[in-house]
Structure formats: structure tokens, C-alpha cells
Amino acid sequence: QLQLQESGPGLVKPSETLSLTCTVSGGSISSSSYYWGWIRQPPGKGLEWIGSIYYSGSTYYNPSLKSRVTISVDTSKNQFSLKLSSVTAADTAVYYCASMVRGVIIGPYMDVWGKGTTVTVSS
Amino acid sequence: QSVLTQPPSVSGAPGQRVTISCTGSSSNIGAGYDVHWYQQLPGTAPKLLIYGNSNRPSGVPDRFSGSKSGTSASLAITGLQAEDEADYYCQSYDSSLSGAWVFGGGTKLTVL
């Protein structure tokens, strides 16, 4: 049973870089059956996909965030990470990591989610 | 403004049937990309409810069903229960621009 857990600072200053890590347990991040994704939810608002990575290192980013986002994977630690640069108050949100089933017939969907971590951008 | 459009809110009495629509376009749902649905109970992470338009993961009651036609998809909930009160999101893939996985804006279901 896959479990995902986000970790990282809860407070980031404007213009700095937000860094989060997602630790995967109960399965291998090197599985060919999954992408690994980051999703965020600003206070009182809806879900926004940030980006995803495959264990090989192939990355897929939301075009609206692409210039500021870097997602990486560390297979030795069974973790993947998110870096979001030049943050502003608009980046304040709950950040979730999720496993995305990479089906042959059915398009990718997020089957297991972490509990989420709140990141506030403020000086 | 979300690429996938959902009604902000729906409501129904216990035992009733409600539907939540998810309207897209020719670059996402209409292009044949699958639609998935998530339930987010207050203060919790989203949970997968329907995948591949109409498939229920193990443990999801058969009161929940999904369908897709043309550029739209729908989530139906029958025999409404108080614990169904939550936010519901549809999700698909959009091939415009550089491509992206996209969510609907979410629908708040209130059980009266």
C-alpha cells in the first residue's frame, strides 16, 4: 500500500525558493507504473497541477509555472522533490504530492495522495 | 478560470440523486482524454473517486458513478448521504499549449 509524505519549510520569504520533498513508502519510486506529481491548493480555492516526473527523470510541468518549477527524483532515497523559485504571496497554498497511475489504456490519474503541507509565503 | 468547467455548488436532500457536470473542449475531454473524479472532504486531501471516466476504485460505494460524452463528463451520486458533503473535482489532460494535466474548478456538494 503506497503512502506519500510531504516535508519542508512551512514559511518561505518572498522572492526565495520553495523546496519540498515527498517520501514514498510501501512501493518503489522506480516503478514503471507511475508518474509522481505535485499539486497545490491555495486557501479556499481549487486544485492546481504543478508538475510530474517519471523515475527516469522525464519531467512535465504546468505551462503557467514552468519557468519557476523544477521537479527531481532521488531513486536511492525513494523521494522526489519540488523547487519553486521567486515565490510570492500567490504561491501560498497546501502542497500535495501524489502518485499518478501510468495506465496503458486509461490516462494518468492520481490514486494516492499525501496529506499535504501548508506553505506560507511571507516576510 | 479553469480549463474544465464545473458548477460551483450543487445540493440535494438525503436519499436523492445529484449530478455534477464537467465541461471541457476539443483539446481535452473532446479529444478523447479520460476524465477522473476526486472527493475532498473538509480539511483532508483529495481522494480518488472515479478513474477512466466510469471506473470505481476498490472501496468506493456504487452510489458513485461517472460518465463521459463528447466534450463533457458527469459524476452522479445516488442515495445521497450526509457524509457525501464535500468538494468534488474532475481532472483530465489538455493538449493545448505544451500539454498539462488539468482540474476543474471544483463543486461544493451540500446535503440539505
Quick overview:
The complex is a heterodimer of chains A (123) and B (112). By secondary structure, chain A is mostly beta strands.
Q: What's the count of strands of chain A?
A: 11
Question: How many distinct beta strands of chain B?
Answer: 9
Largest sheet of chain A: 7 strands, mixed
- Compressed to H and E, one letter per element, the order of chain A equals EEEEEEEEEEE
Number of helices of chain A: 0
Overall geometry of chain B: globular
Question: Percent helix among the residues of chain A?
Answer: under 10%
The chain-level structural class of chain A is mainly beta
Total count of helical runs of at least 4 residues of chain B: 0
Which structural category do the helix and sheet elements of chain B fall into? mainly beta
Radius of gyration of chain A: 14 Å
The run of helices and strands of chain B is EEEEEEEEE
Spatial shape of chain A: globular
Radius of gyration of chain B: 13 Å
